[in-house]
Amino acid sequence: MAWRWGHYEAAKKLVPGPDGLLVSIPTGDEAALLTLANDLFVLRHNGAFQDDILDRLRHRDQFAGARYELFAASTCVRAGLTVRHEDERDRSRRHVEFIATDANLGLQLAVEAKQRQRKGRRRAVPGTDRPDVTTLVNKALEKRPGMPMVVFVDVDMDPPPVGDAAWISRLETEIRKEMARVEANAKGPLAANMVVVTSIAYWRAGALPAPATMFYSHVPTQDQFPVSDAVLCRLCEAAAKHRNIPNDLLGTAQQVEFVNQPPGSTS
After folding, report:
1. CB contact at 8 A, 92 and 58
2. Considering Cα of 205, then 195, then 169, then 25, what sign does the dihedral take?
3. Which of 37, 124, 144, 223 is 20 to 30 A from 6, alpha carbon to alpha carbon?
4. pTM as predicted
């Protein structure tokens, strides 16, 4: 709801140009709202939508985790994979989030998504926030699905100060060190074929211009189940382009009117 209010407030300030079009740099709220809509559309259009995901999105304490699972699932679909969610009612074993399949290669990937848990949108004291990649990755690797595995991890860092172009490289350096420690402390090959680390900072940017997303992929030196590099590259590309939303996503004028209305109103 906060993202939609933010979009509505930003849209009210726009002035049409000579050609009648409204053009602006998206705010964090607008980027968050549109990518959420696009991820839901991608999953529903490709038959990978779960009805209970909307229920989880409606609960404040479940929203962040559900949102990141949507990101991971839509990334797999946009990479050309099909998604099948695990039956959580089966208590005989631990479950990953879902199984992603490349039908052409006959390949199945277990996919796990973890996000650092933070309360609300309050910023950390500058200089004190740490990504804690090690804890998140190790928790994901505990699943050990017995098949090729890809892990998505979001460190949920605060948005950088406006104009700070070096924040991504600083964060990547810290993550690279943590992943080296994860591999060094592992007893044998990692259970994951690839770890994708993100910090989708615009989710927390509010009315500020949407900052770039930190995206880092780590392929271990040893893995348990070899996987084609082409599949991993497709996943990396899909994740890196998650903000590339088709211009015709909204479709009809009626849908555009709905999105631009104040939250809670009806057409």
Report:
1. no
2. negative
3. 124
4. 0.85
